[in-house]
## 1
Amino acid sequence: MENNSKSETLLHPKIDELYKIIKCISQSNNLNYIKQNGTFNWQSIAELLFGNGNITKDDPIYPKTYDEYLPYVQLLQPVFQQSHSVLERLTDNTDWLPKLQWLGQQSRLPYILHEYKNPSSETTVVENVLFLTAALEYALGNVYQTIAKKSPPHLLRDLLDTKELRDVLGTCSIFFLKILMGSAESINLRNIVWHGFPLPHEIPPSFVSILLVVSASLSELIEDLSLVSRPQVKNFSRFLTKIHSPPIGYALVDNYLLVTQTVDNSPWTGEWKIYWKQVYQHYEQSNYWRCVMLILPQIELVLRKIYGEANKFDITAKLNEYYITMNSIFEFSEDNRLLDSYMTKGTLHFLYDIFISPFGMRIRDKVSHGEVDLNCLDGKLCSILLYAGLNLLNKNEFPLDGYQSKFHLNSLVYEAVNASKRFVLELMKMRTPSSFGLEFKWNWEVMETLQELVLTECVEIFHRSKKEPEIMMNLMKIAQLIVQICQNYQISFEERFGMFFRHEPRSRARKTLDKMVETLGVIGEILGSIVCYLIRIINERCFENRFDDCQKFCKQTLTIVENLARYSDRESNEWLKALDCCNKFHKIGSDFNSKFK
């Protein structure tokens, strides 16, 4: 088996050339690039790069290719070197911390500065780069939002191209950031590290110095700005509760011997196993935020290696091509052979829930863009990520065969439809008080049919029709509204019966209550029938061959339940209109049955 992990590097030779420039010792005697307070002299750097002129995005000299970026990287070599020298001489962090506060994650900054001076492992430099690139990107997004009063572009390269940032930070600093981490044709530090390509020795410590100095220098440019920080994710418990459950054996990640053997013996770790061992050390020492930041790129790298082997793709970091990323790996086309023999369906469902689903954690995306408060990264999350990574290294020792997605849209539809079935059945069990004199007239045939109908157990999430999500989203909305309708009626009748026992209803109110009791059976019948249709559509995959007819039914039914939800509200005076909705649905259901016999 061809194994990319045995090669010396996954960096393109031209990218490696740029990194070697950063490592070189500068022969320049010009010390004017760094001011006495340790921040950049942007005027001197602008003169170094552009002479006495300036540069704009539309200027012909604005670099677009590697060959155009290379001379600028060479020009900046003494600036990079001086940045490192300044930080190397730093003896007191106190003066520097205020300059970095705008990055957020304040409780981690002293640790980063300490680790810079006293690295605790071979991966410390990479860990610090991971932290600083994510924090800097998030902080720049805050600057943009403060100025533009709207959310920033999701990608860093697009953010750096905005006029808003250029106006407040200046063209020189933006150009510097693009050279450092804003273009795939240049150093591209953020993407190279966050996508897991480099070995520890390929990232020089001077990159940490540069990130610290540029962050401190940018803080001076926004001193007069009342920075608005966007809210960060502070809790993943809703997701963790659903994922962190039996029968998955998460306790296996606490078996040091098994984990070590898995990492050492896997064909996918190679020289990158040093990261995996440090990840596990962070986990054992409850250093969870560093554990999470370090394992995320490595999980993606192992996935990329498996994907490359399965599909015979080159997985190195290239200059002029998109990387094979987590998202592209999960774009299942007919020629994607990832499922053939390399991974189980359960593994892909598990990884999809953690990393890809728009309804799930999207943990890698959020952490890498600085959108997570690192204080919320806990041991439970780490055990899930460790188990996911170890499953990729050895699916037999860390099995995920039976796992089904809990956060794919189809899974959420299953959950919503099952909930709607449960609530309708509960509604149809409701009884009037014995002294009331009237009873609900439930349709027992519909109730029995609904009780017997069950959704198929297997939730399919790959190789799906492109039109399927549109249908599924409507099914979920219908099911959720049915739950709301049932709750509305239960609350309303509980209150009205309470008033009856307290002898509060006036004669007119009593007549209204009698009419409501008489009509709820009809409404319950329609709600039960709708849920039966939802189950049938899912089980029989009605939309695969008759999409337009199925979508028409869903849209019409959605309108019906939206109106029912409004009329069933306890504050509504239009509850009798619910009967009109029921009559309309009889026609809708009849049309559906005639087309899907």
Note: The chain has three domains: 4-221, 237-393, 409-595.
## 2
Amino acid sequence: MRVAYSYLRFSTPEQIVGDSIRRQTTKTRDWCERKGVHLNTTLSFEDLGRSAFTGSHFNEGALGVFFSLVKDGTIKPGSYLVIESLDRFSRENAMTAAGRLFDLVKAGITVVTVDDDREYSPESLGGSDVTAMLILVIKLTQAHVESVRKQDLIRPIWNEKKNLARSKGLPLTSRCPEWLEVRDDKFHLRPDRVEVVRRIIRETISGFGRREIVSRLNGDGILPFKAGQNWKTPRPFTGWQSSSVAKIVSNRAVLGEYQPHKGRAGNREPDGDPIKDFYPRIIDDVTYWRAQNALLGRRHQTGGRRGKAGAHILRGLARCGKCGGAMHVVNKGPLPKGGVYLRCDTNKRNLGCGNSQAWRVDRLEDAVIRSVSALDISTFSAVDDATSEAEAQVEALSAEVSHLEVSRTQLLKVLETGDDAVITRFQTVADSLKAKRHKLDVAKTDVARLSNDPGIVVRLTEAATLSRQLQTAEDKDRHDLRVKLSAILRTVIDRIACVPTYGAVMIIPQRKLWHANLTGFAVRMEPNAIYVLLDSDVDSEVANHFIADFGNDFIPTGRAQ
């Protein structure tokens, strides 16, 4: 049986709401029925919103996948590739486009264009009749020339639109961030969507990951923004996706910023500096950068699988007390004989560490929660709202400085080209970095002035509150509390050292010699940290040794980044 495969393509995302998909699909199906060719619907190839002028549909898109499947034999010789017209196949220069088509034909694939009912096959292109070859070259040339002409016409128009956007704040098109809409040449908020965006950012700061946020949004029946569009071709409902959440959290449009670009898909680059206050702002700078910091903190967590059994509030904190290496989750099956444990990964892989002891995760979690909830915060320095705001400002500025440092490093790589625009952009970024560093220094001074270390006190207070709530919470509330507590603990606790001699030791950094009241736990106070022995059932000799001198018993190295 002869088999055909369809290839659909259009250049701009806006065309997805038009008639292009239906028209191309209908023409392909009609041709197959008329020719008695079976249309394979298991493998479909679509480049929706992808340019054929730059070749991205071949280098990164579905057409390139089709070529790969032909090459590896999945798609057999004698098959058909059915397209609406040759400009769907390519708008590159005729030499490149014809070369791609010839590669398919030489592999035994017949390319069909349904708009003129032509078949480009070894027979039609390799015989004495040159008609098919001439038509092929002419049409491919026409497609490329037309794209070049359109580009030359459109470029000045877009440049003028960008100038108006910078000078008068006028929308370039009706397209805008999904939480806005354009009416009467102005941007207007869509309150319901603005609240969804703010919720996503709040939950990111609280410690929820992208997958968790997606699950919560879908569970609450909140439709993704694309679901509200009036598709002419029915599209399957897929709910929120992790990629959508990631784009929202990192999108500087929430700050009102718009970054013009130049170039086509796959080769786009910023066109000048971002335009400030172009869109209505929906969050402040501090909130935005706290969200970025939260993302950075999640990237610094330890690796490994995170199934339901292995997801715990101590992830990224536990380190081996002998070698300083990571403690990885080991699932020994269901309780009472099994359980989920932490064990030194270096020892497990027989790389020289002698710490073969395992710590049961649920017991360790319980000890951390009880010890944190037992902290007498009144023994620490008092803190007010001003301190909390200063701490948040330091966090936001630190993330912003890191972002600018990355931008400066990227620009350095292309500075040697001598491009005036790159040089100007580099100087702008360097000046911004200098200014932000100064602001960061001022903010840190303010924090130090308000208290010796108010940030950790604030977090300890919140961690203690959440720990007490977690001990009495109902099942439906425990998950959210655990997520929030986990995020805070990673900013409060330097690490939990798993030491064979004593057990697990929680280490809280400090700059002032606090006195921590912790009933039921052995505590050692040092100028740089508070050390809490989490195993509360150790004998008195071990506890006394821990309090007296443990300096040589474990490696005091911090968490790996």
Note: The radius of gyration is 31 Å.
